[in-house]
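Progress narrative, Year 2. Work on (wild Malaysian banana) hypothetical protein from Musa acuminata subsp. malaccensis advanced from sequence curation to structure prediction during this period.
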Amino acid sequence: MASRRLSKSLPSVSALAALRQNPDRNPSPNRAALFDLSSVFDPSSPSAVASVVPLPTLSLSAAIAPSRLARFLESQLQPSFTPAELLRLLRRRIRHHPAYAPYDLHVFLWAAGVDSFRHDHSTYEWMTRTLAVTDRLGPLRLLLGHMVAHPCPCADGIFACPRLEPTFRFAIHAFCRAGHLNDAISAFEDARKSVDGRPSTALYNALINGFARQREHQKAVDLYKTMLKDRVKPDSFTFNILISSCLRCSDLDSALDWFREMRARGCEPNVVSFNTLIKGFFTQKRFKEGIGVAREMLDLGCGFSVATCEILLNGLCREGKTEEASQLLMELLKKGAVPQGFDCFHLVEALCNKRSSERALEVVYSLWKEGKFSSNVTCTTLIEGLRSSGKIDEAYGLMERMLQEGMVPDTITCNTLLETLCDVGRTLDANRLRVLASKKGLKPDSVMLSILAHGFSREGRKREGECVVNEMLDAGFIPNIATYNKLMERLQTRRKPHSS
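Result:
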């Protein structure tokens, strides 16, 4: 019975033959016209994007035909697709496709020409961000013009779309980053005309920052005056940008004037404001005034950041003022102003280069006492400075404390210090450090064990030396039995410990 029902449901042989002769028995001209992309590829068409969207010139595969892209869209979209469905297609299918990725704007503008479709702020914003992060700024300018001419459905009422200004702001950042200030100004003017009421402070800040980065300080000041004329209140970011712009032009006095203007308008300076001023003073080698700004910063209750400490201490070290830098750091430690995460590497390196490794050790221990541990690089640099200065006990103590705190130094630093300890007859201490480091995760190499074996051999410590040699054999560091016997014979012939 089942086979009879199945045979009745299948098409007849004559029907199959007719389908082969005429596969399009029920053509859908409307659907074919819907997925026709010739308009966006034809240079003579008003909606063409071929002239403004440069496709890859060096590609592993040839450019695809519009018909192929049309078939792909037809397989992915229904005729009455929504902005959410188009966004899903652009984000999940076309964006990562090796052949279709360069044609995302073509698809976007093709969808804009479909009668039953209308872009909303989600597709506009996604396309704007995509063009901006891929540095396709010419197409981005075209897209912004299209967005102004064909606004989001949110703007059908009396109010503009709330996502319009963030979209323009992202585009302005992209234009300014690339140095296309004319495009940024044009986008800014379009945003001013399109948004409801007054533009936000962030929109002005984006363009002011663009002028500042391109050293167009006067244009930044003029835009600030326009901002006040439009009754848009500046914030601390506005003044920080203007202060930085003055310092880019080496005009510290004007930067101080903007700092006073900032406080006069009720904007509290933040850590970025003070850091910018301190860096300006240090750039002009006015160190006392820069340190004075830092102290004023603490008096006003504004805490230091890691960047603040780096500007102060690294700036002094670059000018050879290592002692002043170490004194300033100790002062800041007493006030509790050193932030967590600060690393005094540059100060330690500068002190070690000046043969002041003991002072550097004092600085590191003072930081550790306050719970602010230095990095492995800083500690290994200090160990090498102490070792080269003949401070073997201090270097040994520092490495031991590092290992106790779970900070494992690199193998080269360990080998260097162990060799120095063996050279002064302290092979037992060297082996003790090696055992402690192994417990913390350091894997001894052949050089390290060879140093210890030769050290025990020189001191006549046969039993300890045999243990190291056997460990070398177990680790595969001894290539043959002849080498093993040679090492063992060397332990037998060396002098006994404490013998003259």
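Residues 1-9, 23-27, 56-60 have pLDDT under 50 and may be disordered. Residues 278 and 292 are 9 Å apart (CA to CA).
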